[in-house]
Design goal:
Length: 203
């Protein structure tokens, strides 16, 4: 009986030792920039390193959002074993940047998380966004309150007169009062002719 028990225990131990480890989600073990970093020079890319190789199925994503709410990651995420690298366009304002990622782990499940770093000095693109200058005005022109509005977008007032005193209702450019006097003169002339013709018939 003792021999049978020993053989059973040995068989169980063999199965446990020989069994492959169960697959688990990938775990982020380091990043560049690291979570909580304070940088005075803007990085050109983000590198995420995991404990297991990442499946390169074209679904991996890395996004970087700046303090201005703009997205600063651009290009394709590159997978090299357990590393994911995402290029960045030149960063802009100083402040906190959030790196959000979603990668396909070794067990086939997506892993998502985010890390943060702070840019203490404005990046190379801080002055190229066309935003307000230091005095609150646009860098390429006067404040909106004093900018000239093009004539082409100013609505026309049909009742407004032209520069020579005429209105838009008079396409010939003659003042309205001239037409009124002319019409009155014609009316008087017509009445005079009618009266003369009536008298000639009576004679």
């Amino acid at each position: 009986m003792l021999a049978v028990a020993l053989m059973g225990a040995l068989a169980t131990l063999t199965v446990l030792v020989g069994a492959p480890p169960a697959a688990a989600h990938n775990v982020l073990i380091s990043s560049d920039p690291a979570d909580g970093d304070r940088l005075d020079t803007a990085p050109g890319e983000v590198t995420l390193t995991f404990d297991q190789p990442i499946q390169d199925a074209g679904t991996n994503e890395v996004a970087v959002t700046g303090p201005d709410g703009a997205a600063w990651a651009e290009g394709t995420v590159t997978i090299d074993g357990a590393e994911a690298t995402a290029p960045l366009r030149p960063l802009g304002p100083a402040g906190e940047y959030v790196i959000g990622f979603r990668v396909l782990s070794a067990d086939g499940h997506s892993v998502t998380d985010e890390i943060r770093f702070t840019l203490t000095e404005p990046g190379p693109a801080a002055g190229d966004t066309g935003g307000p200058g230091a005095d609150g005005t646009a860098e390429d022109g006067p404040p909106p309150s004093v900018r000239q509005v093009p004539d082409s977008v100013v609505p026309e007032d049909p009742a407004a007169g032209t520069d020579d005193g005429t209105t838009d209702d008079d396409p010939a450019g003659v003042p309205v009062w001239v037409w009124v006097i002319g019409a009155a003169a014609l009316l008087v002339l017509g009445l005079g002719v009618a009266l003369r013709m009536g008298r000639s018939h009576e004679d």
